[in-house]
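The following record pairs a protein chain with its ligand, TLP.
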Amino acid sequence: MASIDLRSDTVTKPTDEMRRAMAEAEVGDDVFGEDPSVNELQERAAAMLGKEAGLLTASGTMSNLIATLAYCRRGDEIIMGDQAHMFWNESGGQAALAGAQTRLVPNDAQGGINPADVARAIRPKGNPHFPTTTMVCLENTHNRCSGMVMTPADTKAVCDVAHQAGVAVHLDGARIFNAAVALEVPAEELTRDVDDVSFCLSKALSCPVGSVIVGSKDFIKEAHKWRKMVGGGMRQAGVLAAAGLVALDSMVDRLAEDHQNARRLAQGLANIDGIKVDADSIQTNIVIFDIDDQVAKPQDFIKAMTEAEVLVSYPGERSVRMVTHRHISGEDVEEALSRTSKVVRELRS
Ligand code: TLP
């Protein structure tokens, strides 16, 4: 029985075209800015997202950390949603390495945050008791909000409030191209109002490694220094950038297929007694659902699913996550549903 891996889109492997491009990539020392493939990727990514310059980093976590280091000094405060990946899943890096404290406001079901909450959370200037708010973080698509998409208008509303107070907005756009495909808008419409955005090459875009952070020339100059400090200078990184260029050329449009599969997956899950999911709300490739307490605890459900060769992940609390990606076909979705249904039946009996 073949295993169906729905843990994450990070499990995708490079395409043959990527492997060929990697083998043939022109390279140089990127710490000196001399790798032509890296330079091309950075320029292309910046242009696609409507920014002046870009910087290749090792991972989404590193990009988010570099943005924090670029904006915040020790004791500064960052505002983000209470479901943010940066808060839940990045090992406390903002606190440990940037010395910044995080102030949470509630995420709405769409993965956004309310501009009025942000306005209230921004610290008034001039009071020595208060930390200085220097950064607001958004996330699009929103991982823990089941891959939900923030619209350009919602993004702008938060940016306007932050900018009026002189606070920068960083967008964790790890899956920004999923958002663009789902809304059928150019990605730059989703990034126009934020100060910088990071996105991942190594998720649904199928690259083996990498993330790119884009912003103004000045911001990227600052980010470059911080990347060096956290050990992210990668020398002949053109080998990785070559895969990234293939991804930007040929892996974006196909994301619609992953979204369709996720919708079908959610519809099938909604029909299984004991699973709770709002199938109509699924917009991209992430399906988060609850499992009835009477069926099993999420950890026991996941164990039974693993034995049935369907790999899923556990975002924490009560939920279970399935993610569609390039290696998951329509048939895999149907097979995963049939195995899931059997697992739930067996756990109930
Ligand atoms: N997310 C991973 C896990 O960490 C949960 C996944 O499997 O989805 N921002 C967002 C919104 C992300 O979803 C992730 C990775 C990152 C940043 C970090 O990217 P990497 O893994 O490249 O450091």
